[in-house]
Write a structure and sequence with these properties.
It catalyses: beta-D-fructose 1,6-bisphosphate + H2O = beta-D-fructose 6-phosphate + phosphate. By secondary structure, this protein is an alpha+beta fold. It has 2 domains: 195 residues, Fructose-1,6-Bisphosphatase, subunit A, domain 1 (Fructose-1,6-Bisphosphatase, Chain A, domain 1, 2-Layer Sandwich), CATH 3.30.540.10; 128 residues, D-Maltodextrin-Binding Protein, domain 2 (3-Layer(aba) Sandwich). Helices cover 28% and strands 23% of the residues. The strands form 4 sheets. The chain has an 8-stranded mixed sheet with strand order 4-3-5-6-7-8-9-10, with helices on both faces. It has a 5-stranded mixed sheet with strand order 12-11-13-17-15, with helices on both faces. The termini are far apart. Bound molecules: 1,6-di-O-phosphono-alpha-D-fructofuranose. The site of 1,6-di-O-phosphono-alpha-D-fructofuranose has 11 residues, from loops. 1,6-di-O-phosphono-alpha-D-fructofuranose binds next to loops.
Length: 341
């Protein structure tokens, strides 16, 4: 184990790249603290009565779990008074959340999906928190949507926490992708107890893979290019690909992307006739943009099939897009099929 804490690593990164403002460091440290608290709440599970439905629906019309609400509240709470943020936007809330009156305001905008894959909570399977950091345009009002509508290429930091057998924080600042593991030992048991410790620097996705992730139950709703691509994977050795492929689907994007960052693969939530009217299933600002930047930084690619995801000019805070990301050769193949190749 490196023994390098998340805070120490951020300060090293500041020295190495000379472009990490103090309030961005604070934004990331406070986000890590929120993820530590969310991890603890999830870890208590049924003991703390946090499982099950909250009895409310979010802006997307989806039923909220208690832990969706708890995670959202934790993130809003820890970030409201530090003076590092201008505002926040959450997948769980209709409108941006401005920093409360009287509290100091900073220059960054934080966007997050507080608990991705929350349908996994009650079955004790991995879930996560995804976040994206943008700089607020000078003179902008972070109570409004406009300052948040920046393309993925404008992100200054992006990452996620995955709450699985271990809790890990994965981060990019535009210089590769790095993994930190939460030392879950009790205070007093180890000097690093409660800290995120650097466990992998420079995660890379192999260009080629034999593993894909897609919700196969939607097969009849897909467009022709995706039908063709998946048919070819399923044909295995006997088909045009000349080799067998394996499939995985965790139903939490965080966990599927984490597997791809760890051992390669391709993830697809493509456009289909069920979600076409909404533009797709996954959210651009809270899921697709941060994950696409991480994947690109690890040597992979991310596309809607028709366009690089990071180049999309957002039109709404809760906009949805098709997502195809992971090993570069596979993503380029699917994009090629969309272009009629
Ligand atoms: P929830 O957070 O509502 O569980 O949604 C998770 C998610 O947005 C994404 O993380 C998964 O990849 C995808 O939905 C799973 O979708 P299916 O329900 O089609 O499996």
């Amino acid at each position: 184990m490196s023994g390098i804490t998340f805070s120490a690593w951020l300060r090293d990164a500041q020295r190495a790249h000379g472009s990490l403002p103090a309030d961005l460091i604070q934004t990331l440290e406070v986000t890590a603290d929120a993820c530590r608290r969310i991890s603890a709440a999830i870890g208590q599970g049924a003991l703390a009565g946090v499982l099950g439905a909250a009895g409310s629906a979010n802006v997307q019309g989806e039923d909220q779990k208690k832990l969706d609400v708890i995670s959202n509240d934790i993130l809003l709470d820890v970030h409201s008074s530090g003076g590092h943020l201008a505002g926040m936007a959450s997948e769980e809330m209709d409108d941006p959340f401005p920093i409360p009156d009287g509290a100091p305001r900073g220059r960054y905008l934080l966007l997050f999906d507080p608990l991705d894959g929350s349908s996994n909570i009650d079955i004790n399977v991995s879930v996560g928190t995804i976040f994206s950091v943008l700089e607020a345009p000078a003179g902008s009002n972070a109570a409004e949507v406009a300052p948040f509508l920046q393309p993925g290429t404008a992100q200054v930091a992006a990452g996620y926490a995955v709450y699985g057998p271990s809790t890990q924080l994965i981060l990019t600042l535009g210089h590769g992708v790095h993994a930190f593991t939460l030392d879950r030992r009790a205070a007093g048991e180890a000097a690093t107890a409660g800290e995120f410790i650097l466990t992998q620097e420079g995660m890379t996705i192999p260009a080629e893979t034999q593993e894909f992730a897609i919700n196969m139950s939607n097969q009849r709703f897909w467009e022709a290019p995706v039908q063709r691509y998946v048919d070819e994977l399923l044909a295995g050795k006997a088909g045009v690909r000349g080799r067998d492929f394996n499939m995985r689907w965790v139903a939490a994007m965080v966990a599927d992307v984490h597997r791809i960052l760890t051992r390669g693969g391709v993830f697809l939530y493509p456009l289909d006739s069920k979600t076409a009217a909404k533009g797709g299933k996954l959210r651009l600002m809270y899921e697709a943009n941060p994950m696409s930047w991480l994947v690109e930084q690890a040597g992979g690619a991310a596309s809607t099939g028709r366009q690089r995801i990071l180049d999309i000019a957002p039109t709404g805070l809760h906009q949805r897009v098709p997502v195809i990301l992971g090993s570069r050769a596979e993503v380029e193949r699917v994009a090629g099929y969309h272009q009629g190749e």
